[in-house]
Write a structure and sequence with these properties.
The structure holds two protein chains of two kinds.
Chain A lengths: L6 E10 L5 H10 L20 E2 L18 H17 L3 H4 L4 E6 L25 H8 L1 H8 L6 E4 L5 H14 L5 E8 L3 H9 L20 E2 L1 E8 L1 H6 L6 E10 L12 H14 L8 E3 L6 H14 L5 E2 L2 H4 L6 H15 L1 E2 L21 E2 L4 E7 L4 E8 L6
Parallel strand pairs in A: 2-6, 3-4, 3-5, 9-10, 9-13
Antiparallel strand pairs in A: 1-7, 1-8, 5-7, 8-14, 11-12, 13-14
Chain B lengths: L3 E9 L2 E2 L1 H10 L5 E7 L2 E8 L12 H4 L4 H17 L3 H4 L3 E6 L5 H13 L7 H6 L4 H10 L5 E4 L5 H15 L4 E8 L3 H12 L12 E2 L1 E8 L10 E9 L11 E5 L10 H6 L5 E2 L2 H4 L5 H15 L1 E2 L20 E2 L4 E7 L4 E8 L10
Parallel strand pairs in B: 4-8, 5-6, 5-7, 11-12, 11-15
Antiparallel strand pairs in B: 1-2, 1-9, 3-4, 7-9, 10-16, 13-14, 15-16
Helix pairs in contact in B: 3-7
Classes of the chains: A alpha/beta, B alpha/beta.
């Protein structure tokens, strides 16, 4: 792995069940609150329903957007992007004529697989829509490009739960390779009936609020949300006298090559992704202030992460934020990367809510209270169905190099 | 850095393997057949180019294949054929191999069936295996597991520019030194939705181009890419890959090139090929060999690689769907004469993709 140049992050937008802006989310996390509830957008076949973390409906302000509303995932993405652009001090007009790429991770909206938009050949009650219209209505990357009349490279990453992290990693390479002045990168996903029922059928869902790394953990709660970042070249920042908020210092992606839904017991892929992220950023374990773990609350996932943290990052504090947000699937890598940068800026990490009793099988456990951190570099990692692992190395300074 | 194509695996209505694609190209005859499809408006008949993946059974054990759906079967077979074509075993690639899969529909049939179950609210019929295979990265995951490759492994989806999106990232991985080789490809199933759409379009007499829509296709195409300067299969070097959406202007086309247009008669914006390509060079269309499927550009790239290797541009197959007086359609084979080949795709969602292949001399991204 070649050491890569750091890519500035000039703006961040984030919304999920914890809040409708990144600052609101962080304030919520530090209060240690959470409000999971039954899904309201579809009917659960279970009673009581498995809890989820929904974004309150009033987040969407259609008057702020030119294009039609699209599906909920598109609305989440566009809303997060507005915050990211405001945060970067970039007006939509500024994007005209710039080389702007869009790279978005998603799970639910990755294709034409929305049930409202499919199946006219078999379902009499579905309105007929041509395939391209269905795709246009459901794809967040395309919606963003259309909303702002962008013509740079476009990519929707569909690596399930690691998609948001992978999208940021890929977007950074477009800046680094000189393909783009700016890249809009991140992830978005809505709560969806199929994934809700699917995780239950896999017995990967907790019927109560999730408990990442706790000895009684039973699985995840689903959530929804979006986080978008403005990745920008140094030249573009200089031209508009912008200021970087953070840096993407490294990115690692690796596969387990083990099983479609279960992680490799030795964490083969995650170990390599961590190593590649650190190596590409030119840092060592002692430089890491904290780790934002994937921490879904599923028994296998948490066990593997804990073992690797003990092995590779002894003494480094870590947390899972999924107890506050649920698992936002394709958005998770981006939402948690946004949290990671926010925590670096505030120099403290919130308690890992849901964790109470250490699991004797796990060598290390997450923080249980708001914890001050030292340093300017942190890791955010995501693991996914398919054995995908994505690790982002993030920093608030230009780093040790 | 030169990025070479060192192996190609092709699976489609024309057969399996790059030689089957070459035979179809030489014969110039599409091999579609009519199949029945039940719809809300009754049974319809649609022309289709369907893939047969039976030879995968000779390469992967039955126990493993039991949990693999038709979508993944196609991708797995094409990726294994690409390695075979390159003359290397899976043992030789392992950890220095990246995997990139583009798909326009995802595991469509499986996903749609699953959605119908969801709509019935019958949770008892939910199969965990079916749900697991419904994620768009299932094909990539199975390929990695069979090959025991722990390198980066991504799946991307951008409807009918999904293949060029995947290929672009594959090239970036090689340029960045993340891996030494990449298996980059695309896969899509026969889509009942698209078949019904085609039926509606032809019923209405709205073919949207001169020659009428091609048959609905399915299949997978994979390329083994290498940054190793010593490896030369004769398939040529990828000079540039672009993708994005149309917003007033398309990317500039290379000079001294032949253009392979991904027109299939179904995308609403195909008339724009004429204004994009203009009189920059002759145009060939081969979609009738592989059919309408979102990752069709991958098959055009395979045909481009064969053309480079054989130093010959093949005549369009069947009646070309793109017909315009201003476009110089290639109706007869002709020598390559050192020209580059540029595969262009104008997508249904205003997307556009462009892949430029040259015989040897060009470095990736040079002259961008």
């Amino acid at each position: 792995m070649i050491v890569q140049d750091y890519v500035p992050v000039s703006g961040i937008g984030c919304l999920c069940a914890a809040g409708l802006t990144l600052d609101a989310c962080l304030d919520f996390l530090y209060r240690g609150e959470r409000f999971p509830g039954p899904p309201t957008k579809f009917t659960s076949p279970f009673s009581p329903a498995y809890p989820v973390f929904e974004v309150p409906d009033h987040f969407w302000k259609p008057e702020r957007f030119r294009t039609g509303p699209g599906v909920r995932t598109v609305q989440l993405a566009l809303t997060a992007l507005r915050e990211a652009l405001d945060n970067a001090g970039i007006s939509p007009a500024y994007l005209c004529g710039k080389r702007v790429g869009v790279c978005i991770g998603t799970n639910v909206a990755g294709g034409v697989s929305n049930p409202c938009l499919t199946g006219p050949e078999t379902l009499a009650d579905c309105a007929y829509l041509t395939p391209d219209r269905r795709y246009s209505a459901s794809n967040p990357a395309l919606a963003i490009a259309r909303e702002f009349h962008l013509s740079g490279p476009l990519q929707t990453v569909v690596t399930a739960c690691s998609a948001g992290g992978d999208a940021i990693g890929l977007g950074a390479s477009w800046v680094r390779l000189g393909l783009c002045d700016l890249v809009i990168a991140g992830g978005a996903d809505e709560l969806f009936e199929i994934t809700y029922n699917g995780f239950i059928s896999l017995m990967n869902s907790d019927d109560g609020p999730c408990r990442p790394f706790d000895t009684e953990r039973k699985g995840l709660n689903l959530g929804e949300g979006a986080a978008l970042m403005i990745l920008e070249s140094e030249a573009s920042l200089r031209e508009r006298t912008g200021t970087p908020r953070a840096f993407l210092m490294g990115y690692g992606s690796a596969g387990d090559a083990y099983h479609l839904t279960a992680p490799d017991p030795d964490g083969r892929g995650l170990r390599r992704a961590l190593s590649d992220a650190m190596e590409s950023g030119g840092v060592s374990a002692t430089d890491i202030a904290f780790i934002n773990a994937h921490g879904t609350g599923t028994p296998d996932n948490d066990r593997i992460e804990s073992r690797l943290f003990a092995d590779l990052f002894p003494g480094v504090p870590f947390l899972s934020t999924k107890g506050y947000t649920g698992h936002t699937l394709g958005a998770a890598g981006a939402v948690e990367a946004a949290f990671t940068i926010g925590c670096l800026e505030r120099q403290q990490i919130p308690p890992s809510v849901g964790f109470a009793v250490p699991d004797p099988e796990l060598p290390v456990s997450p923080v249980t209270e708001t914890t001050a951190i030292e340093g300017t570099i942190a890791l955010s990692e995501t693991l996914a169905f398919g054995g995908n692992n994505a690790v982002l190395l993030l920093g608030t300074e230009r780093g040790p190099r | 850095m030169k990025i070479r194509i060192t192996g190609i695996g092709a699976v489609g209505g024309f057969g399996c393997g790059i030689s089957a694609l070459e035979q179809a190209l030489v014969s110039g005859k599409p091999s579609d057949r009519i199949i029945p499809l039940d719809t809300v408006n009754g049974r319809i008949q649609v022309p289709a180019l369907l893939a047969d993946t039976a030879i995968l059974n000779d390469r992967v054990d039955k126990r493993t294949l039991r949990r693999i759906d038709p979508h993944t079967r196609k991708a797995l077979l094409a990726s294994l054929l690409a390695l075979e074509d390159a003359g290397i075993s899976s043992q030789e690639v392992k950890n220095d191999l990246g995997i990139l899969v583009g798909t326009g529909y995802g595991s469509t049939c499986n996903t749609f069936d699953f959605q119908e179950l969801a709509l019935e609210k019958d949770i008892r019929r939910f199969s965990p295996i079916q749900f697991s295979n419904s994620v768009h990265n299932a094909a990539g995951a199975h390929i990695a597991t069979i090959l025991q490759s722990s390198g980066p492994n991504l799946s991307v989806n951008q409807y009918d520019i999904s293949f060029s999106a995947a290929l672009m990232t594959a090239c970036h991985w090689l340029v960045e030194g993340r891996v030494k080789q990449v298996l980059a490809g695309g896969v899509d199933d026969f889509s009942r939705m698209m078949a019904y759409h085609r039926h509606c379009v032809t019923e209405n007499g709205d073919s949207r181009s001169g020659g009428g829509p091609t048959a609905i296709g399915e299949g997978s195409i994979f390329f083994l890419l290498s940054a190793d300067a010593d490896t030369d299969s004769g398939y040529g070097c990828i000079q540039d890959v672009r993708n994005g959406i149309y917003n007033g202007s398309y990317p500039l086309l290379p000079d001294h090139a032949v253009f392979f247009a991904g027109a299939d008669g179904l995308s609403p914006e195909e008339s724009r090929y004429t204004s994009w390509i203009g009189n920059k060079g002759p145009v060939a269309v081969y979609s009738s060999l592989y059919g309408n499927l979102p990752v069709g550009t991958g098959f055009d790239l395979a045909i481009a690689a064969l053309s480079i290797r054989n130093r010959r541009i093949y005549a369009c197959a069947g009646e070309p769907v793109l017909q315009n007086e201003q476009t110089a359609i290639l109706r007869k084979s002709q020598p390559l004469d050192g020209r580059r080949i540029c595969c262009v795709k104008i997508g249904a969602t205003a997307g556009c993709g462009m892949i430029t292949l040259s015989e040897n001399a060009d470095e990736y991204g040079k002259g961008r």
